[in-house]
Fold this protein.
Amino acid sequence: MQKGLKIASGLALLLSAASTPVHAGGATDTFRIAQISAREMGFEVKVNGPINNPANCQFPNQLRINKTEENYSVIVSTLTTAFIAQKPVYLWTVGCHSDGRVNFIAVFVDN
């Protein structure tokens, strides 16, 4: 009886994990930043035209990092510097925000 309960619990766990939606993360294309915005919820970046959008978010040219991310200050400083210097960047995305913007957690500056 105990073994059957463990198997049933394991199957239930597998089925619940399989039905959970997964948002793919990944790198965007390299792009130049068109606009930056510091807002209450985080820091936003806008791009002229859509970019590679691994998570298939509704607004692929609008990206945001939440203030709660551990490396928020470093990323905001890096993005601001890249914007001023007009350097191309690419971002590591981790899904979509509830408002359809791309959620990202890392920035890379190209030369």
